[in-house]
Amino acid sequence: MRFTIPVKPRTKKNHMQLVTLKTGRQMMLPSKAYKEFEKQVLNYVAENPLIIKSTEEFKLPIEEKINLKGLFYKEKDYKSDLAGYLQALQDALVKAGVIKDDNHKIIETTDGSRVFLDRDNPRIEVEITKISV
After folding, report:
1. What domains can you pick out in the chain, each with its CATH number?
2. Which mean pLDDT values do the consecutive 10-residue runs of the chain (133 residues) have?
3. Is the link from the previous residue into 122 a cis peptide, with omega within 30 of 0?
4. d(CA 53, CA 49)
5. What is d(CA 74, CA 1) in angstroms, rounded to the nearest whole number?
6. Which of 9, 11, 85, 97 is spaced 20 to 30 Å from 31 by Cα?
7. Is the pTM of this model over 0.85?
8. Distance in angstroms (rounded) separating the CA atoms of residues 91 and 33
């Protein structure tokens, strides 16, 4: 299964905000930038059911062992964290119902994932392949 999500890649952990609850306890919440990223991914999945759909190979949500390859094309040339991009993508795909969970029993590997620069066309290219046992 291959598809391209036309959004600017964002990480979850580098875009957190510290909030203080009424109890005085502090906690970390996703930032507005991450929430917008997640919203864009969810909208893309909802608006493109023919691109991201159940097939003979995969029934959604995916519950079997897979390799989730993400090619992240960012818009600016700044230091970035591949693990952070992968975490954000995994969490968004789980929330969108593409993958059942992002634990190691389903997403066994992220082989081939990389970060690139494309100032004119930031995006995430996703490839999901089954892992034979």
Report:
1. 2-130 (3.30.1330.70)
2. 94 73 85 89 91 82 96 94 94 95 96 98 97 82
3. no
4. 6
5. 22
6. 97
7. yes
8. 15
